[in-house]
Amino acid sequence: MNKYFLGFLIIAILAWYLSFLATRLDRLHGRVETSWANLDGLLQRRAAIAIEIARSDIADPASALLLTFTAHQAREASVRDRSQAESGLTGALSILLENSETISAPIELDLVRELDELTAKIKVAISMHVEAVSRTQMVRKKFLIRLFRLAGHAPAPVVYEFEGDVF
Amino acid sequence: MPLGKKRIGIVCPYGWDTPGGVQSHVGDLAEYLIAQGHHVSVLAPAINDEGLPEYVTSAGRPIAIPYNGAVARVLFGPLAFARVKQWISSGNFDLLHLHEPAIPSISLLACWAAEGPLVGTFHAASTRQKIAFAITPFIEPVIEKLTARIAVSEAARETLQIHLDTDAVVVPNGIYAKRFANAHVDDRWSGNTLGFIGRFQEPRKGLSILVHALPRIIEAVPDIKVIVAGPGNPVDVLDSMEPHLRNRFTFLGRISEEDKANFMSSVAVYVAPNTGGESFGIILAEALAGGASVLASNIPAFDSLLGHGEYGTLFTSEDSRDLAEKAIDLIQNPAKRRQLAVRGSEYAKNFDWDVVAESIYDIYEMAMVGSTGVTLSSDNRAWNKLLGRNS
User: Fold this and answer.
1) What is the pLDDT of residue A162?
2) Which of A62, A126, B243, B334 has the largest count of CB atoms under 10 Å?
3) Cβ–Cβ of B147/A128 closer than 8 Å?
4) Pick from B264, B254, B269: which is nearest to B286 by CA?
């Protein structure tokens, strides 16, 4: 009798632990998605501002061309090429805004200020997303999670090398 | 609720009635957010329910445990857990901001109980917290629930990386820079004076190092005075030092915020000889904002706050000889002091609440993306739903 009871107890504990692990992983998957949605939104806005800057008086024709090109590339890049495309846009923006103190027109100043604020937010969004992704990957590697396939059909999160992309 | 106005719950792990860096940070943040039109509720342990600000809810009496070189007043246990859950479910929050969630107190309990946008702020920075972090395997799944992490300094961020293997965004602690900008020089404290603010009886605040350095400073600057502000019993300190040093000291006891600003503007050099356990050093930011020239020990928090010596002078921690030399140099060199003070007060604007709270709120907004608010995780459990249990 006692033996059965012990067996039942072990199974109950295991079941509880598995459900705990599954909830934990599910929450992480959810977080990867929302943090990506947030980051994606902010990056889209950055590309839009870049195009606006390209059309404004700050940009000379050559940098306007480069900026428009990189901005469109960033918007249309597939998930895997995204990081590199965003780096391209950052590069183009930094070439143009290297000596931004010469800008005096209020509309352009507004644009530059908006871009600065956005960049600060993007940095935070990147760190939140990278954190969520690396946590998820760590938990997915756990033995029990792999054994019982607790990740289900949720796609494995993609690692981005965003760290140095935005400055 | 008008658009953009949120319901924010903040959890403070330490007793509200005892003064401390985390408590005053939480209080200032709450007041700032309320002034912006948000609804804010703070949950904190408190010895006495009366006299709490309107926005603070007491979670019960804190328990005093020795921690990190000081006595921490924390709270945990089944009753506290029930109160935390009750506060979360009745608060209807859009977001919870948990302070020090890795410390066994109500922030950790709230993190365990809540589901939704959670932001955690880590204040502590110490490599000696081995014991506290030995419970890491238990804490990890809880800390993992935080949507966003904030560290108050690079030192705190490093501690987090080492002990919990997770990264954080650095947002410094805030000060009301304007309050310090309006300060005036008080004759009682000006002249060749060294200023010190803090609980001077705690060894890690390092007053004894200053006392040891004093004879050397007296040789070079005969009229030097030391002015000490902060709670504590000066008799014990005075008894332990040599008689000829006693008349150099003035103890002011605890001083008001206004006096603190004047104090910083008046003293020749503000000395912070802390030996460790300091994560941010808000007092240095205040000293800079008040236009004091700062002399601080080179512990990591101070080193990074003072820009590795750019905005204040650093001496080797726990070395009273070095402290004396640097202090003499500063006192005999008013031009250098003025230069440091000017640079410092400009730099201190970065710590103004207007800047700091804005960065924190940006993080709130990102954490709240796509969420419908904070719920109790127990409400979401499948079997509770099946049984129709919805507390």
Assistant:
1) 60
2) A126
3) yes
4) B264
Domain B7-174+352-386 architecture = 3-Layer(aba) Sandwich (3.40)
Overall residue count recorded for chain B in this entry: 391
The DSSP bridge pattern shows strands B70-74 and B63-67 to be antiparallel
Site of tokens 């709120």: B361
φ/ψ (deg, to 5) at B130? -45, -45
Interface predicted TM-score (ipTM) of this complex, two decimals: 0.78
Q: What angle do CA A132, A133, A135 make, to 5 degrees?
A: 65
How far does B115 lie from chain A, in Å, by closest CA? 9
pLDDT tens-digit series, residues B282-314: 889 999 998 889 999 998 889 988 989 899 999
Q: What is the CATH number of domain B177-350?
A: 3.40.50.2000
SS (H, E, C) B157-188: HHHHHHHHCCCCEECCCCECHHHHHCCCCCCC
Closest CB from B115, B167, B369 relative to A131: B167
The whole-model pTM stands at: 0.83
Label residue B140 by pLDDT band (50, 70, 90). Answer: confident
Q: How far lies B63's CA from each of B46, B72, B77, B257, in Å?
A: 10, 8, 10, 28
Query: DSSP assignment of B236-266, as one string?
Result: HHHHHS-HHHHTTEEEEES--HHHHHHHHHH
CATH number where A96 lies:
1.20.1440
